[in-house]
């Protein structure tokens, strides 16, 4: 994390540490590791509402972005991989696989022409610059037949308290009006941060489920039970 000590980065880093420690405090008090839900701002009443409405008829797409499938290396020792059932996979991909297995949806990897640094420290710096530039990385994978899908799970890591910029490219490319969007996420303390509200702003005519799933990067290998309970709560 030494690379975070660049000009302008210190204040955000301190905020990151603060959020991290708050998260651990909440975890310790609540006894709820990282499981299930959700956006920090969701509450029990909107959770009930969204649970009652979520499962829609029609095909399911499970779209996700993970650094591991966009760094151009197979290095399983990369900081972006998690070991699940003896296999090294990107962390968000691991959650996507679990959601796919339970819902029978189709997987879609959000890919970009940008080759992200495999080195964790370099990636932190790179992503910060992308965010500062409000970049829109070029997408190289595209959803075919979007009309076939009513429900789209969308997974991403938290990067600098936000979605990776490539998710902005993704939401620029598609109009999800009339569809149900179900966010899921991995993080290292910030959970969803404000990303669910951002998705609602970007897709105002979609039904964005606020009861998304957010799992700490450390808990991915053991997340399947939490993923399944969450999906069952949504009607799957
Ligand atoms: C560039 C970058 C920025 C990150 N920023 C945050 C952050 O602001 N808050 C947080 O909780 N975790 C942050 N993390 C941790 C990631 O959200 C976490 O490692 C996630 O599991 C990565 O998923 P992936 O390996 O599938 O891409 C960051 C990681 C990277 C690489």
Notable characteristics:
236 residues; globular; binds flavin mononucleotide; Rossmann fold; disordered N terminus; six-stranded parallel beta sheet; alpha/beta; two-stranded antiparallel sheet
Q: Which parts are unreliable, with pLDDT below 50 for 5 consecutive residues or more? A: 1-11, 17-53
- Supply Rg: 17 Å
Q: Helix segment count?
A: 7
Mean pLDDT: 81
Give the % helix.
Answer: 25-40%
CATH architecture descriptor text? 3-Layer(aba) Sandwich
Compact description:
It contains 7 helices and 8 strands.
Model description:
This protein has 236 residues and is an alpha/beta fold. The chain has a single domain (2-233), classed as Rossmann fold. Helix content is 36%, strand content 17%. The chain has helices spanning 10-30, 44-53, 91-103, 120-132, 165-173, 195-202, 224-233; strands at residues 59-64, 81-84, 87-90, 106-109, 149-157, 180-187, 207-208, 213-216. The strands form two sheets. Strands 1, 4, 5, 6, 7 and 8 form a six-stranded parallel beta sheet that branches. Helix 5 links the parallel strand 5 and strand 6. Helix 3 (91-103) crosses helix 7. The longest helix is centred in the N-terminal third of the chain and has 21 residues, at 10-30. The termini are far apart. The model is unreliable at 1-11 and 17-53 (pLDDT under 50). The structure holds flavin mononucleotide. Residues 16, 66-68, 80, 90-92, 123-124, 127, 157-161, 186-190, 217 line the site of flavin mononucleotide.
């Amino acid at each position: 994390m030494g690379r975070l000590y660049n000009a302008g980065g210190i204040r955000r880093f301190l905020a990151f540490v603060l959020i991290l420690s708050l998260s651990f405090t909440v975890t310790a008090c609540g006894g709820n590791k990282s499981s299930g839900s959700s956006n920090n701002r969701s509450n029990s009443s909107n959770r009930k509402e969204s649970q009652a409405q979520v499962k829609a008829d029609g095909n399911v797409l499970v779209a996700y972005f993970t650094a591991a499938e966009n760094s151009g290396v197979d290095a399983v020792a990369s900081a972006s991989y998690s070991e699940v059932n003896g296999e090294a996979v990107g962390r968000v991909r691991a959650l996507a696989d679990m959601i796919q297995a339970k819902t029978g949806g189709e997987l879609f990897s959000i890919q970009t022409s940008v080759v992200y640094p495999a080195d964790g420290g370099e990636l932190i710096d790179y992503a910060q610059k992308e965010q500062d530039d409000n970049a829109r990385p070029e997408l190289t994978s595209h959803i075919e037949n979007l009309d076939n899908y009513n429900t789209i799970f969308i997974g991403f890591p938290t990067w600098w308290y936000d979605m990776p910029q490539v998710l902005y490219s993704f939401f620029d490319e598609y109009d999800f009006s009339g569809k149900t969007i179900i966010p899921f996420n991995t993080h290292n303390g910030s959970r969803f941060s404000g990303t669910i509200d951002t998705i609602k702003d970007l897709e105002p005519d979609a039904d964005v489920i606020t009861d998304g799933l957010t799992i700490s990067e450390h808990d991915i290998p053991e997340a399947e039970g939490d993923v399944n309970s969450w999906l069952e709560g949504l009607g799957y």
